[in-house]
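Let's do one together. I've listed all components of the complex below, 332 residues spread over two lines.
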Amino acid sequence: MQPTTQVQGPGNCDQGSGLGSKNAISAPAADAGLNTTGDNQSDNSESTHSRVDWNALVGRIQSGDNSGLEDLYGLFARGIRFYLCRQLGPQELDDKVHDAFLIVVQAIKRNELREPERLMGFVRTVVRRQVAAYIDDVVHSRREELHLDVGVRVADGRNNPEQTAAFQQKVEFMTSILQSLSDRDREILTRFYLEEQTQQQICEEMNLTETQFRLLKSRAKARFGELGRRKLQQKPFGALFLRTSVASEH
Amino acid sequence: MNTGFPFHIPGDALENYALGRVPDADCAPLDEHLLICPICQAGLEEMDEYVKVMKAATAAISQTTIEDSGHIQDRTARLLRP
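Okay, and this is what the predicted structure of the assembly comes out as:
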């Protein structure tokens, strides 16, 4: 196995030493042609799933070839972890990732996957069902179980003080950017992000073209990035703003 | 071969996804791509953060505007008092 490349999930999803954190991107994923270089959006190179031979992978797992399991794990562990953490938070994340894998592998071994080339769709379905089941459980237990155990440990979903300070600083950057905009531009962004109006609605009501709308949004993003970079050069505290991700490490 | 979403997710689509504005019917290719693409996962993570920051900043500005307009109304009322 290659050295691990740990990527922060949303919130505190990278904690623990379970399945997901063992090897966030493993050799099989890299071998499958994963492009881990370049900018996020500008990199338009073909991505992993159009290069993976899903039939062969499923076949290897069905025949009991352990390298098939390794490859499956290498391809999906991080994504499943990311998805589950984004939907449900970091609580018991390792167990949930493990459960998802177990379901997928058992289904493959039982030959229940009729279209191996739809493996990604199958994994998605499994993970979505897991999310739905978990939410159902929580709703059910809130409704039915009145005698809560006082000793139950619940993960603190809040950011730590450093994260809170970093976030607050980002909000201040953005507030200063918004204040430098015209009232109209600020209103457009407020309608879109805060009031959750659609692009179409905003364009209609404010007599904007789609291009003008997009331009305003991308300018705000660029200015946020630029201001953030400038502040980073001034303050050692700014190291908190550096994203530790695959994309930035390569 | 599955080629449902052969390239990385474009910024606008990622933003709509982060904002929860992609209709369920259109989510599948994005979800599937995100399951195996660390680049787009990192992009979504950044986008989630940006959206949170933007929401907080626009809320702060709106609050300030409301408070400012409240102050103006108070002052106007005081000035108009006989």
